[in-house]
Amino acid sequence: MDHMSPRLRAFLSEPIGEKDVCWVDGISHELAINLVTKGINKAYILLGQFLLMHKNEAEFQRWLICCFGATECEAQQSSHCLKEWCACFL
């Protein structure tokens, strides 16, 4: 876990529960606003979309970029975060 950002480490330290979407590593304040505006206000909702895409990081990243205006870096960080969470908890 030494190579992980503090934010990723914190996210992976416990189940998602009712965490807001902004807890996901890679989700900036601006991206969180875009997600919340379209009904994705909780981390578990974003995780659900990731799972519906069969944990396909490239597809999930394209979706975040095209539908919510995520940067490539944000999309990569958030998909990595959700992938790592799945590896720890599923």
Automatic annotation (TrEMBL):
Record keywords: Nucleus
A GO BP entry is:
chromosome organization
Principal cellular location given in the protein's record: nucleus
Q: Which InterPro entries match?
A: BAF (IPR051387), BAF_prot (IPR004122), BAF_sf (IPR036617)
Q: Name one Pfam family in it.
A: SAM_BAF
What are the record's GO terms for cellular component?
Answer: condensed chromosome; nucleus
Q: Which GO terms describe its molecular function?
A: DNA binding
Q: Could you confirm whether the keyword Nucleus appears in this record?
A: yes
Q: Where in the cell is it found?
A: Nucleus
Recorded superkingdom = Eukaryota
UniProt function note: May play a role in BANF1 regulation and influence tissue-specific roles of BANF1.
Q: How does it assemble?
A: Homodimer. Heterodimerizes with BANF1.
Name of the protein in question: Barrier-to-autointegration factor-like protein
What organism is listed for this UniProt entry? Answer: Pongo abelii
The top of its lineage is:
Eukaryota, Metazoa, Chordata, Craniata, Vertebrata
